Amino acid sequence: MTFLKHLRLYLIALAVAFPLDMLWLGVVAKDFYRSHLDHLLAEEVYWPAAAVFYATYIAGLQIFAVLPGLRAASLSKTVLNATGFGLFTYMTYDLTNMATLPDWPVTLAAVDIAWGMTFSACVAALVYVIGRRLQRT
User: Fold this and answer.
1) CA Rg, the chain, in Å?
2) Where residue 41 falls among pLDDT bands split at 50, 70, 90?
């Protein structure tokens, strides 16, 4: 796969990941997060930090899940790697918060980690399917 196809796949992954996460955070689980973290949440999202997070997270997902899956021509490898990536990254975040922030809820950590695994697997699976099509062109 050429650099331009890699770049296109990365941009597609961003285009898939951001709306999916916004749907989760802003609609599906909005009240859940607010009920557990209202005292910590900012009034407004600091979008520069969010943009760097998404850019970096999607790069990691590409490197550790999508590209190895494409090389192996294996959707199951992609999903397994992405689920593991989501587990380790979200668990690191939530356990660090539990260790350093007062009253970080265990329930929130469990749901957030499960979301990270699901989010990563869904994004990587879709990008893998698109990537397989790009490989044939």
Assistant:
1) 16
2) confident
- Which residue range is the domain that position 27 belongs to? 3-135
Residue 1 is predicted with a pLDDT of 75
Q: Is the pLDDT of residue 39 over 90?
A: no
Please state, in angstroms and rounded to a whole number, the distance separating the CA atoms of residues 119 and 23.
11
Q: How far is CA 17 from CA 8, 41, 100, 107, 129, in A?
A: 14, 22, 28, 24, 15
**Predicted TM-score (pTM) above 0.85:** yes
Q: Which residues, other chains included, contact 122 with Cβ-Cβ below 8 Å and sequence gap of 6+?
A: 20
Cα distances from 110 to residues 7, 41, 115, 135, in angstroms, run 33, 19, 9, 37
Total domains in the chain come to: 1
Contact criterion met (CB below 8 Å) for 78 and 124: yes
Average pLDDT score over residue span 70-94: 98
**CB contact at 8 A, 124 and 9:** no
- Judged against a pLDDT cut of 80, whether residue 6 lies above it is answered with yes
d(CA 57, CA 14): 9
List C-alpha distances in Å: 122 to 31, 90, 117.
23, 15, 9
